[in-house]
Specification:
The chain is 30% helix and 31% strand. InterPro entries: DUF5655.
Length: 120
C-alpha cells in the first residue's frame, strides 16, 4: 500500500478503513488502473475515472460511474454526470455489502466508462 493511502486512512474509523481496503481490492482485481489519492477521496481510472471512495464517519461511500441507471440495495442516489454517464453513490456499512453484485457493477464501470466515453 502506498504512503498516500496510509496518509488518507490515518485516523479514520477502523471498520470503514477495512471496507475501503476491501473495495480497493475489488477495483484492483478489474485490471490495470491509475489510483489517484486525494485529500478527501481515492479515485480509480483507466482513461477516465470510473470509481471513487471516501470514508464519512463510520461509513464507506462509493461512487460508480456507469452508462446506465441501476438499482442496488445500498444505492443512496444516482444522477447524470454527462449525457452518457450516470454516477451511482452507494453507502457501505457492513463487509457483506461488498459482494459479487457490487463487484459485477464495478467490472462494468471499468469496462464501459474507464476507457473513456467519447467516440474515437
Amino acid at each position: 500500500m502506498s504512503a498516500a493511502i496510509d496518509e488518507y486512512l490515518a485516523g479514520k474509523d477502523p471498520d470503514a478503513t477495512e471496507r475501503l481496503l476491501q473495495f480497493r481490492d475489488l477495483v484492483l482485481a478489474c485490471g490495470e488502473v491509475n489510483e489517484r489519492v486525494h485529500r478527501t477521496e481515492i479515485a480509480w481510472a483507466r482513461t477516465r475515472v470510473f470509481a471513487a471512495a471516501f470514508i464519512y464517519s463510520s461509513r464507506l461511500e462509493i461512487a460508480l460511474d456507469l452508462r446506465r441507471r441501476v438499482h442496488h440495495p445500498q444505492l443512496r442516489e444516482a444522477f447524470p454526470t454527462t449525457k452518457t454517464v450516470i454516477t451511482h453513490r452507494l453507502t457501505i456499512t457492513s463487509d457483506d455489502q461488498l459482494d459479487d453484485t457490487l463487484a459485477a457493477l464495478l467490472a462494468e464501470a471499468y469496462d464501459t466508462v474507464g476507457p473513456g466515453t467519447r467516440a474515437r
